[in-house]
Amino acid sequence: MKVTVTKKEVPEVVFIGTDYIKLQDAMKLANLVLSGGEAKALIQEGQVEVAGEVCTMRGKKLYPGDAFRFQGKTYRIEKQV
């Protein structure tokens, strides 16, 4: 009998203090980029996914519970209480 174990990815949580955050700002908050310009370029190149689809809108609003994926890792937005 062969058993296959798959490792489930645990997303990194990005806490926000507002109702939503723009995608490029979320990338900066998660320390994925050094500047908004860098985030803009990566997003427009199609290197970021939101809800499983490539997103090229740097101003895309992310709400608590939303997630984005960058360089093989998932980041989930949560509101800080």
Radius of gyration: 14 Å
Cα(first) to Cα(last) distance is 48 Å
Strand fraction equals 25-35%
Please, how many helices?
A: 2
The tally of strands reads 7
* SS content category: alpha+beta
Assign a percent range to the helix content: 10-25%
Average pLDDT number: 93
The stretches of 5 or more residues where confidence is low (pLDDT under 50) are none
Instruction: Enumerate the strands of the largest sheet in spatial order, edge to edge or round the barrel.
Output: 1-7-6-3-4
- What overall geometry do the principal axes of the alpha carbons give? globular
User: Which sheet architecture does the biggest sheet show?
Assistant: 5 strands, mixed
Order of helices and strands: EEHHEEEEE
Outline the structure in words.
This protein is an alpha+beta fold and 81 residues long. It has helices spanning 23-29, 36-44, and strands at 12-16, 21-22, 48-50, 53-54, 61-62, 67-70, 73-79. Strands 1-7-6-3-4 form a five-stranded mixed sheet, covered by helices on one side. A two-stranded antiparallel ribbon has the order 2-5. Helix 1 crosses helix 2. The model has no long low-confidence stretch (mean pLDDT 93).
Features:
81 residues, alpha+beta, five-stranded mixed β-sheet, 2 helices, 20% helix, 31% strand
Give me the secondary-structure topology.
Blueprint: E1 12-16, E2 21-22, H1 23-29, H2 36-44, E3 48-50, E4 53-54, E5 61-62, E6 67-70, E7 73-79
Helix pairs in contact: 1-2
Short description:
The protein has helices at 23-29, 36-44; strands at 12-16, 21-22, 48-50, 53-54, 61-62, 67-70, 73-79.
